Amino acid sequence: MDSLTLRVLKWKSEFWEKNNQKLSKFIVPVAIDKDEIYFVNGLVEWKNEYENTGKHFLIDLTKAFDKNGKDVTIKVGIVGIDTSALYKMNLKEFIDKLSDSNWDDRPFLGLADQLKLADYVTKLANDESSKLIFLKKEKDLIM
After folding, report:
1. Which letter does DSSP use for residue 69 in this model?
2. How many other CB atoms sit within 10 Å of the CB of residue 26?
3. Who has greater pLDDT, 48 or 137?
């Protein structure tokens, strides 16, 4: 299951559309802890307002690599990562909401972007005003 982390993944459209005020169409899992997964939103477009927030950064899509370590390009339509909130969800529910189960074929973020993401998430975890948002099932709704 750890192979889910540090890859750009996409939600099923019906899940994303229901939660699009909170969630991006694309997410990047950052950690798995037992039966819980933590992830951040991917940015489909870069806006000037993200420039100096300290919570958003551009990624280099051309510096990704596959499961064999071969250099590849991410071709899923994100340009950056939003670390303004860290999301937590049950791992099984998370997997059920993904657009496909073929995540092993998705490339990993490049090493520089992985390190940058780790730095941003560490700052987020240590920030007393940070947001940890729990997404959990409640009568067929995700809260």
Report:
1. S
2. 20
3. 48
